Fold Diphosphomevalonate decarboxylase.
Amino acid sequence: AAMAAERALAMATCTAPVNIAVIKYWGKRDTDLILPINSSLSVTLHQDQLKTTTTAAASRDFTEDRLWLNGKEADVGHPRVQACLREVRRLARKRRGGGEDAAALSLSYKIHIASENNFPTAAGLASSAAGYACLVSALARLYGLEEELSEVARRGSGSACRSMFGGFVQWQRGERPDGTDSLALQVAPETHWPELRVLVLVVSGEKKPVGSTAGMQTSVETSPLLKHRAEVVVPERLAQMMQHIRDRDFEGFGQLAMRDSNQFHATCLDTFPPIFYLTDVSRHIIALAHRYNAHHGHTKVAYSFDAGPNAVIFALADTVAEFVEVVKRSFPPATNGDQFVRGLPVGSAALSPELAAAVLTEPVPGAVQYILHTKPGPGPQLVDDPSQHLLGPDGLPRSRA
Ligand code: DP6
């Protein structure tokens, strides 16, 4: 019996990506299970630029469940954190089928979780999707689960289920009331479209507006446009978007991404009282993208905005340098000019006088804080190197250098 002693401390660390929807999720039919009123489709962004890292540990010696976010202790009792924990433990119990596996981690042990982002949380870049995808991935590793867990990540945040895969990902709304068919599916891996690039234009300090959870609930209750969108528009667009991705048709992909972002923000205006996520700077970027495309005579850049003012721009690699120059000239950096462009390297480009005359207007200095250059990337990753754990051997956060 002594030989069958359960392990005293176990630890697992994973990383998970951010995703940006090109067919937006907005509205739930079940707020507890997080079941959406429409399917959605997103691009997973590369973790070299944006990622969450989470360590989950379980030990016989822990006296309570605890959680740290970016080094600060947070409320582990949060209902969505609890829903993820409960679901992972339920699956682990089911897997063991009641039989005691001596090598398995005891499900009665308390757990410690530490999570941090490699990007400033304050920048307003969607962090809950990466955060919950990472939490579920780390817990699954800890308990030795191997099944697909987008259904569990969905319980943390709807958009989190799409961060369980790399590349191009669909969250199918499903039909069942219990949500067992509301899960994410990979449409194509990140290698499918090697030329696709993403620029995140981080817009300067705005107060945080109404959060997406509360916002979308008000929209469901009051917006007839949202109802029409979910019933009629999205099913058509989803099929079209899948085809554009399969064909690597940037023109089709970009136009539809812009239209869908615009319709999402139209449903926000149609909500009563209305919700405004776009700012003057966001609208300035929209107009700039359209002037740029009009000058070239086709869609070379496409914007998308979530529940905040930051712009995500899609472009092919051969367009990035020129468009970044356009952004620099339109929104010259206030300070820190050398850190204005971050992430993947961006070549230099000179703007032709014709382009400058057609596209540029009066510059707005400081309106864009910085540009992050990234591309589609893979889904959650296991971190093998034990020195990368965010928790030490005592189960407490390591002091960060
Ligand atoms: C505008 O996934 O953050 O980014 O399910 O309530 O946690 P909850 O909402 P969340 O909503 C994301 C909305 C969006 C569009 C999208 O990502 O599809």
User: Anything to note?
Assistant: The chain has nine helices and 17 strands.
